[in-house]
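yo

u said u wanted the structure for the complex thing, so here. seqs first:
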Amino acid sequence: MIKVVILGGGNVAIQLAKAFKNAKKVKLIQQYYRSKPDAFFLENNIATTQNITELRNADLYIIAISDDAIIEFSKKIIIQNKLVVHTSGSVSMQDLKCSANKGVFYPLQTISKQKKIKFKNIPICIEAEKDTDYKLLEKVAKSISKKVYAINSEQRKSLHVAAVFVNNFVNHLYKIGNDICEDKNVDFEILKPLIEETAKKIKSLKPKNVQTGPAKRNDQKTITKHLKLLTNKQQKMYTLLTDSILDTEEKD
Amino acid sequence: MIKVVILGGGNVAIQLAKAFKNAKKVKLIQQYYRSKPDAFFLENNIATTQNITELRNADLYIIAISDDAIIEFSKKIIIQNKLVVHTSGSVSMQDLKCSANKGVFYPLQTISKQKKIKFKNIPICIEAEKDTDYKLLEKVAKSISKKVYAINSEQRKSLHVAAVFVNNFVNHLYKIGNDICEDKNVDFEILKPLIEETAKKIKSLKPKNVQTGPAKRNDQKTITKHLKLLTNKQQKMYTLLTDSILDTEEKD
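structre next:
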């Protein structure tokens, strides 16, 4: 059994803890918490501590706290010769400022505390300084997910910013679509099958090859009509995205 | 049986023809084509004509041609006292310049010729001048789809521009995400579960309520890090979308 300690009590910490509970090769032995221990650990009789000097002897220590706090927090960890990882997409492995062995265990998904997550299909991007540590991380990752990728710190940063485009920014475009519908008393439901189909398409096809719409066709008549229907801010967004699509098409 | 003539041979025309073939209450009796009749009509022994004065006697005439061509084409139709509709999201009902009764039959989905479409879950937005015509359109729409909506011309135009945001622009953001991954030799596959989850979430929740990411948290440190990883054009897009999210959050 691989013994794991989780440091933190946020969404990722709790969801990982729940996933490890059902994993065969992993045993979660302790949670380190700042303000109060999470109910999940208490209910499952997993040790908890608020004292960083009282961490138990484990094979792997997973820091699952907010990105901003990782560097400072890692300085307080006095573990030696064991593997310490963080779970962040935007922080380098070398930003871990402890003298333990370093690594990263980054599950790439929007994770909320409430909604139960099936880790099976969530990609886990792993990295470690040492080969043996990488193999340990791989075992742990594979115990909860089918999708495990070797990703170095530079690649992970790019993945993180790409994720902002395909998740955060995409959601904001959904929000603008919703605003436009609400303005005209149109049920946003009508757009949902289209949203689903748009996401489905790129499962098997490259986004570039399935681009459609007035910008793709350089249909200036429709573009002008559309702009008239939008608020100033929406117009700015529409224009930038349209120009960017036109630009892509011209290059080919 | 409701007798239908389809005018046009593009993606929407062919997909509608295929759907009507399996519909119980609808009989497709003729296709009008410009350059050559589509194989589907020949294989199914459906009459075809290239002569606009030889349209057969039907209950419904569906113009499924490109948006730009609808106004001019509709002037050539000499039908009286029958219902003529177009299938466009961006053209008004009143842009039909024939003396027949007017209506709109707008399936809201990205439709390509090759990929077989299941109309059952595609929203069809209908509009007609006359009540009896509306009822006829409703029957035809319900014969192929479970999702039929009464949408007037003004609402339809807004739907069409909203669709550009949630479909065409979203796909372009996928494309940018893909570019970023390719630049760093990262497999775009890793992002696909996130893309799927992002689209799934808004099935039951409002996009505004599930917004996440550095812009939502006003996490300037991460935003600055991200900008450094991007090309000039990507930076412009990142900044505009980030500002727009910040703006949304401030308002609340």
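Residues 214 and 222 of chain B are 6 Å apart (CA to CA). Chain B touches chain A through 85 residues (CB under 8 Å).
cya
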